[in-house]
Amino acid sequence: MKFPIGIQSFEQIIEEGYIYVDKTDIIYDLTHNGKIYFLSRPRRFGKSLLVSTLENYYSGRKELFRGLAIEKMEIEWNEYPVFHVDFNATNFTNSGELEMKLNFYLAEWEKKYNLPNRTNELGLGDRFIKILEAAHLQTGRRAVVLVDEYDKPILDVLDVDADLENNHRNILKAFYSVFKGADKHLQFVLLTGVTKFSQVSVFSGFNQPKDISMDIRYEALCGITQKEIEEYFTEPVSQMAVEYQCTQQEMYKLLKQQYDGYHFSDKLTDIYNPFSLLNALDAKRIKDYWFSTGTPTYLIRLLNHSHERMNEFTGKYYTPAEFIDYKADVERPLPMIYQSGYLTIKAYDREFNTFLLDFPNNEVKGGFLTMVASSYLQPSEETGSWIRSLVVALRKGEVEHVHGLFTSFLAGIPYTMRRKENEVERERYFQYTFYLIMRLVSVYTVYTEKAQSQGRVDCIVETPQYVYIFEFKLDGTAEEALRQIEEKGYAREYALDSRKVYKIGASFSSETGTVSDWAVD
Fold this sequence. Notes:
Layout: H1 10-15, H2 24-32, E1 36-40, H3 47-58, H4 69-73, E2 82-86, H5 97-112, H6 124-139, E3 143-148, H7 152-155, H8 162-176, H9 178-181, E4 186-193, E5 196-198, E6 210-211, E7 224-225, H10 226-232, H11 234-244, H12 248-259, E8 271-272, H13 274-283, H14 289-292, H15 297-306, E9 316-318, H16 320-324, E10 325-327, H17 334-339, E11 344-349, E12 354-358, H18 362-377, H19 383-396, H20 399-411, H21 415-418, H22 423-441, E13 446-453, E14 456-462, E15 466-474, H23 478-488, E16 500-508, E17 515-520
Helix pairs in contact: 5-6, 6-8, 11-12, 18-22, 19-20
């Protein structure tokens, strides 16, 4: 089986015999039920392949769709003039790069439709309108416009160069305004990207596109569903199970924990990250493929600037307005974190129309929280390797080693990072520190958070042979912590469990920044 890793050309996938997960029935529905669309999905999620598929479909290339669902649905296979703008491969951190890119596209199209080059006469938007009008008149068919990663010129400079960011936003706003002026010349328009910028953004300048990012009809347009993995990839999953010395069902479970968990509507259809899944099936190894291809440094900067914490985002319900639209003049990182794929929908409350957000899977949770912890705490030890040492000690039942690991890691956090001016900030630092540590532990164990209230964090960690019931107290005593574990009755549900149960009370000192008292029962 040939896996199309890094191949974004539909034509190449079909002609060279790569595996193609058939989405053409959804594409047919999309093209016949609307005109101007916007789709937001995380990077490397199949947006460019979708755009390439649409380009070939609107170019009337029926032979490429032989055997696919759309072959039986489409009758006409008309050829339309297609205008494909691809911002993927360009670095927009250099001033003038965006204007040069758009001028190149427009000059090529003007040449194709025998129009004079009007670089010095008309603005970008007006030149594009003239091109679309000429294409319509010369071919007798309305134009199709496909813009891949429409927001990359903004994302490349976001929070790095404010002047260039504003410049790019204004240029794109003028360019995209053509969709209003050239409406009668347009058959179909799709913009794809990571983030929906609103307010002073490109969206305020043109005929508002229909945002299908959370539409239940199109939630599986990109990515791979559980049904699709079982339909298309049974053989490689079986081969992988042999490598991992487990059953096929156990292999499905491992892949699900690592790469599944995305939801893009209130229907909550499970969607796998396609880039990671295909890489894993090809290499027959579970690794962090998606996360390692791009570090979200701009998100870390946003978090630092806004002084918001990940524990204040996860496990909470939000209205769509709170996590869908990114407002450039309001430093709220949540929409960017969600749309970049580091948080996803985990539940839906129909009564209030609110959505629960959390990490999609272990790959994202482990990678993102390690990066956040390293930036926020700046420990002397490397966070990822320390977490792995802690998990090994927990699996072996080495309670005192666990104590030593906590003490040394927390002591290695610089004083400047943990110095907090008032009681509220000391409490936030305490809560966030243990949230980051224990959520990273949860990547490798069964983890239950029991309580996060003032001055305490209660949680349970389960390994195959041991159960650990923790209470971390801020500026208290270990005995008080143990007493509260007893009073809350957290151990009762494990009374008949064959595993050894450890109750651990630990006190965290806001003065020294490390564990000051530790008791085990």
